[in-house]
């Protein structure tokens, strides 16, 4: 293992060893407090452009599942077609793995997909730095290549355009109600949850104008980066809402885009929500749910148009976790009801959306 150094934009340095692909890389450094799910997190397109820090100390002990594809074209165990995170940073990488479904080690997978991995980092101290300062840009440098310094930008980059599909893809064709899914970086399990409920999914690029095609409901998917870079998608959502009251549901980035279409503003969280244990409350009730989340931006609920209201709020910091229209079947969640990996306490959001399609 080669010696590497993680250098944050404020000059803070952390020294460790490389266990993945040996290549310097730069990106936004974020932390995830989940205890499991690194195959799902690494393949989540929402991590595009980011160096992912896992706070759980032992990583790699259950290896990596095979990349198999189901008859419908969806990967069996991964959330997309490849690793989207720019790097993974852990405290203790387990070289030995054991799991009934594992076919290779995390290190071998990272090397095959040319993604750096660092171990031996004090991730507890690193997380404290990020919590105090907020997310920062960082660089992974190899000590024996001091002049090989990577550059990267995160602010002002349209990552959604980079990860979205480029053409229309159909799933479960010819069955049930038709749902247009706007792909901002959709996780596979969102598609699975819709297909499993018997609807046809028409997956379209993030900036595709779907207002002229035949469908029964609109689904706005998750995605990476700044939602303010997706004005084209917002304008199309606004156009759709002006001509129809067909059901609309959004997740994560979808919540933010729907809110923007409803007149709200977006702001960047200090260090984001990336975990499996974020508590959210259903507004107007004492019902609280444990949720899986992965986002760095939030909706400023105070800027919502008068026809909209909050649906969920975060119990830790009071930030918005979902919105709904007061009269039309338009609603969303900032968290991930499909989880994967994570709790499935809020998967009922898919049921509510599908039920709305037949009303």
UniProtKB/TrEMBL annotation:
SUPFAM superfamilies: Carbamoyl phosphate synthetase, small subunit N-terminal domain, Class I glutamine amidotransferase-like. InterPro entries: Anth_synth/Amidotransfase, CarbamoylP_synth_ssu, CarbamoylP_synth_ssu_N, CarbP_synth_ssu_N_sf, Class_I_gatase-like, CPSase_GATase1, GATASE. Pfam families: CPSase_sm_chain, GATase. GO terms for biological process: 'de novo' pyrimidine nucleobase biosynthetic process; 'de novo' UMP biosynthetic process; glutamine metabolic process; L-arginine biosynthetic process. The keyword Ribosomal protein does not apply. Its EC number is 6.3.5.5. Pathway: Amino-acid biosynthesis; L-arginine biosynthesis; carbamoyl phosphate from bicarbonate: step 1/1; Pyrimidine metabolism; UMP biosynthesis via de novo pathway; (S)-dihydroorotate from bicarbonate: step 1/3. Keywords: Amino-acid biosynthesis, Arginine biosynthesis, ATP-binding, Glutamine amidotransferase, Ligase, Nucleotide-binding, Pyrimidine biosynthesis. L-glutamine binds at residues 46, 223, 225, 253, 256, 294, 296-297. GO terms for molecular function: ATP binding; carbamoyl-phosphate synthase (glutamine-hydrolyzing) activity. PROSITE patterns: GATASE_TYPE_1 (PS51273). It catalyses: L-glutamine + H2O = L-glutamate + NH4(+); hydrogencarbonate + L-glutamine + 2 ATP + H2O = carbamoyl phosphate + L-glutamate + 2 ADP + phosphate + 2 H(+). Residues 2-141 form the Carbamoyl-phosphate synthase small subunit N-terminal domain. Signal peptide: none annotated. The active site is at residues 252, 336, 338. Transmembrane segments: none annotated. Residues 1-177 are annotated as: CPSase. Small subunit of the glutamine-dependent carbamoyl phosphate synthetase (CPSase). CPSase catalyzes the formation of carbamoyl phosphate from the ammonia moiety of glutamine, carbonate, and phosphate donated by ATP, constituting the first step of 2 biosynthetic pathways, one leading to arginine and/or urea and the other to pyrimidine nucleotides. The small subunit (glutamine amidotransferase) binds and cleaves glutamine to supply the large subunit with the substrate ammonia. PANTHER family: CARBAMOYL-PHOSPHATE SYNTHASE SMALL CHAIN, MULTIFUNCTIONAL TRYPTOPHAN BIOSYNTHESIS PROTEIN-RELATED. Belongs to the CarA family. Composed of two chains; the small (or glutamine) chain promotes the hydrolysis of glutamine to ammonia, which is used by the large (or ammonia) chain to synthesize carbamoyl phosphate. Tetramer of heterodimers (alpha,beta)4. This is Carbamoyl phosphate synthase small chain.
């Amino acid at each position: 293992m080669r010696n590497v150094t993680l250098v944050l934009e404020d000059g803070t340095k952390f020294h460790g060893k490389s266990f993945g692909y040996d290549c310097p890389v730069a990106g936004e450094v974020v932390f995830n407090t989940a205890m499991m799910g690194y195959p799902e997190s690494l393949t989540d397109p929402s991590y595009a452009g980011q160096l992912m820090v896992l706070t759980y100390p032992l990583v790699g002990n259950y290896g990596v599942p095979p990349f198999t594809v189901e008859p419908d074209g969806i990967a069996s165990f991964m959330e997309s077609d490849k690793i989207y995170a720019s790097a993974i940073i852990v405290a203790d990488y387990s070289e030995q793995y054991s799991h009934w479904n594992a076919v290779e080690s995390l290190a071998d997978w990272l090397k095959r997909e040319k993604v750096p991995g660092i171990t031996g980092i004090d991730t507890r101290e690193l997380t404290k730095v990020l919590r105090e300062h907020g997310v920062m840009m960082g660089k992974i440098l190899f000590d024996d290549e001091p002049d090989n310094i990577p550059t990267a930008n995160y602010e002002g980059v349209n990552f959604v355009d980079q990860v979205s599909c480029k053409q229309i893809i159909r799933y479960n064709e010819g069955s049930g109600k038709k749902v247009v899914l706007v792909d901002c970086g959709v996780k596979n399990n969102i598609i699975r949850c819709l297909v499993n409920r018997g609807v046809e999914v028409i997956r379209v690029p993030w900036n595709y104008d779907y207002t002229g095609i035949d469908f029964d409901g609109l689904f706005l998917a998750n995605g990476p980066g700044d939602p303010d870079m997706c004005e084209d998608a917002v304008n199309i959502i606004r156009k759709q809402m002006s001509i129809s009251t067909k059901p609309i549901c959004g997740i994560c980035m979808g919540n933010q885009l729907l809110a923007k279409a409803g007149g709200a503003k977006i702001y960047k969280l200090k260090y984001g929500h990336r975990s499996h244990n974020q508590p959210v409350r259903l507004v107007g009730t004492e019902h609280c749910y444990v949720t899986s989340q992965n986002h760095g931006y939030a909706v400023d609920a105070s800027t919502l148009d008068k026809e909209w209201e909050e649906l969920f709020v975060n119990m830790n910091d009071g930030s918005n976790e979902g919105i709904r229209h007061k009269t039309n079947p338009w609603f969303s969640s900032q968290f991930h009801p499909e989880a994967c990996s994570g709790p499935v306490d809020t998967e009922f959001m898919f049921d509510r959306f599908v039920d709305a399609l037949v009303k």
